[in-house]
Specification:
about 230 residues; Arc Repressor Mutant, subunit A; 3 domains; rod-shaped
C-alpha cells in the first residue's frame, strides 16, 4: 500500500482527529487484506492499521484513541508501507540501497522515513550493497562479458560507494580472466572482423569494440596477440 492508497483508506483523517479522543468499540479484519484491520467507534470508521502496528501498539477494543495515538498510528503505518514496498521490490530482484530509495521515494513518503526503513533493512541483513555489487560484477563478467569500466559505470549509477566498487572489482576480476573474456568476445564475431583485410585496421576495430564493452586499454593490448593468433588459426 502506497501513500496515496493509505490516504484513500483514511480519507477523513483530519475530521476524525478533530473528533478524538474516542474509544475503539470494534476491530474488524479487512476483506481485501487479511493482515489489515479497520478500527471503529460504533459505526464511525477511525483508521486502518496493519497487523504489525496493532501488535506494536497493543490495539484492542476499548482502547481510547487520542489525537496523539492517532498520529503515532499513522506514522507507524507509513513505515510499514515503506517496508512492504521495499520487500516487494527485493522479491523481484536484488536492489542497491540507492535504487530502493529512488523507487519508494516516488510513492510520496517522507525521505526521513524511507531512510529509516532502508537503514533497518541494512542492519537486519535484508539489504547489503557489497553483496549486491559482488553479484552484479559476477553476473556481468560471466554472463554478459562486460569489462570493469562498464561494470563500474553501472554500479555508480546504482549508487554504490566507490570503495565497495573497487573492492568487489579487485576481488572478482583479474587480468588473465579479463583477457580470456576479450578473446571469447572477438571469436564470437570472428567472421565480422576477418572481413577487414588490413591487419592494422582490424586491430583498431577490435580495440574499439572491446573498449566499448568496458575493457581497459592495457587488458585489450595484452589480449591482442592471443586474439590475432586465434583469428588466423
Amino acid at each position: 500500500m502506497n501513500k496515496i492508497e493509505r490516504a484513500s483508506e483514511n480519507a477523513d483523517s483530519d475530521s476524525i482527529e478533530r473528533k478524538l479522543p474516542l474509544p475503539v468499540t470494534k476491530i474488524t479484519v479487512q476483506k481485501k487484506n487479511q493482515d489489515r484491520y479497520s478500527l471503529f467507534h460504533d459505526k464511525l470508521f477511525l483508521i486502518g492499521i496493519s497487523r504489525k502496528t496493532r501488535n506494536d501498539f497493543s490495539i484492542e477494543e476499548g482502547v481510547e484513541l487520542t489525537p496523539s495515538l492517532y498520529r503515532q498510528l499513522n506514522d507507524a503505518e507509513d513505515l510499514v508501507a515503506i517496508r512492504d514496498a521495499c520487500f516487494r521490490y527485493l522479491s523481484r530482484r536484488d536492489h542497491s540501497s540507492f535504487e530502493l530509495k529512488q523507487k519508494v521515494g516516488k510513492k510520496g513518503f517522507k525521505t526521513s522515513d524511507i531512510e529509516q526503513v532502508i537503514q533497518n533493512l541494512s542492519d537486519s541483513g535484508y539489504l547489503d550493497d557489497e553483496t549486491f555489487a559482488a553479484k552484479f560484477v559476477e553476473e556481468k563478467t560471466e554472463l554478459n562479458q562486460w569489462g570493469p569500466k562498464k561494470i563500474k559505470s553501472h554500479l555508480y549509477k546504482k549508487g554504490i560507494d566507490r570503495k565497495i566498487i573497487d573492492k568487489v572489482l579487485t576481488h572478482k576480476t583479474d587480468d588473465l580472466q579479463l583477457q580470456q573474456i576479450c578473446v571469447d568476445l572477438v571469436m564470437k564475431r570472428k567472421r565480422h572482423f576477418l572481413r577487414e583485410n588490413d591487419d592494422y585496421k582490424r586491430k583498431q576495430k577490435i580495440y574499439r569494440y572491446l573498449a566499448g564493452r568496458g575493457f581497459s586499454g592495457s587488458v585489450i593490448k595484452k589480449s591482442l596477440p592471443r586474439i590475432t593468433e586465434k583469428l588466423h588459426a
